[in-house]
Amino acid sequence: MATRNTRSRRQQILQALIEQGGVQVGALVERFGVSAVTIRADLNHFQAQGLATRTHGGASLVRTPPQERDIHEKDTLNLPLKDSIGLRAAQLVRPGDNIIIDSGSTTMTLARHLHGHRDVSVMTNGLNIAWELATAPGVNVLLSGGQLRKQSLSLQGNQAELSLNAYSFDTLFLGVDGLDLQFGLTTHDASEARLNQRMVEHARRVVVLTDASKFGKVSLHRIAKLEQVQTIITDAGIDAATREGLQRLGVEVIIAEPEGE
Fold first, then answer.
1. pTM over the 0.85 mark
2. 53 CB burial (10 A radius; 0-12, 13-18, 19+)
3. How many CB atoms lie within 10 A of CB 103?
């Protein structure tokens, strides 16, 4: 419970930093009903992530999380790189596998490359992913319920989270908005983050699909720590420091090469 409270409090503090540009220890102590020592530890945590810098009596925002893009705009960005990542991810799927494909533009490319697969069951919260797989004869599709978030064409909320309870999956293929070595995997929306957290809990292996532009970025809501991830599939744009940092954490890094290279 203490860990959950800390995570929730820090997410709220980060949101306040983003909205206000700075926070004060005294005001946060009053708001959350915790000690000044605890709040200072929270602010030191954000400073260590490079998100904030400590000031006298508080902290100010240093690094602003990236703005969320509409799913249709995302689909047009870095498409050849995303397609090579999706192709490489599809090569990890074996007959008989039960997998989750998270909503997103990069995970959508994985769905496109599953059309030749057989005896695969896919749970997804992405309407576009379900539609893509509707014509894949060897793929059984389970669509989570929940409320539609139109910006991302994803289903989310309590119903979507509860739909996972009856299942255990071999692999989760997860898309992210940010990946930071210290802060972990993040996304823009709180409901999507909660659903992604449940997905992580119900999968034996977590594979993150992301192009290198997401490295070093931190969105508002954390999905998971990198210690919970087994594999990351990305492109050759990953910098050496990030690659080495991931490998030190025990995360397998797979570099997907565009076709023809």
1. no
2. middle
3. 26
Where do runs of H (alpha helix) occur along the chain?
A: 2-20, 25-32, 36-48, 71-75, 79-90, 105-112, 127-133, 158-162, 190-201, 240-248
Q: Rounded to an integer, what distance in angstroms lies between the CA atom of residue 62 and that of residue 21?
A: 8
Nearest to 214 by CA among 258, 174, 164, 171: 174
Q: Indicate the Cα dihedral angle 187, 188, 194, 200, nearest 10°.
A: -10
Q: Is 1 exposed, middle or buried (0-12, 13-18, 19+ CB in 10 A)?
A: exposed
Across the beta sheet with 120-124, the strand order is 139-143, 120-124, 98-101, 169-175, 203-209, 231-234, 252-255
Q: What is the mean pLDDT of residues 145-160?
A: 90
Report strand pairing: 169-175 vs 22-24.
unpaired
Q: Which residue has the higher pLDDT, 148 or 7?
A: 148
**Beta pairing partners, 169:** 203
For 174, half-sphere exposure in the C-beta direction (CA atoms, 13 angstrom radius) is 35
Question: C-alpha distances in angstroms, 256 versus 185, 209, 239, 259, 260?
Answer: 20, 10, 14, 9, 12
Please name which of 179, 259, 251 lies closest in space to residue 217, comparing C-alpha atoms: 179
Polymer length in residues for the chain: 261
Can you read off the two tokens belonging to residue 167? 């299942």
**pLDDT 10s digits, 80-131:** 889 999 999 999 999 999 999 999 889 999 999 999 999 999 999 999 999 9
Per the structure block, which two tokens stand in for 213?
């532009």
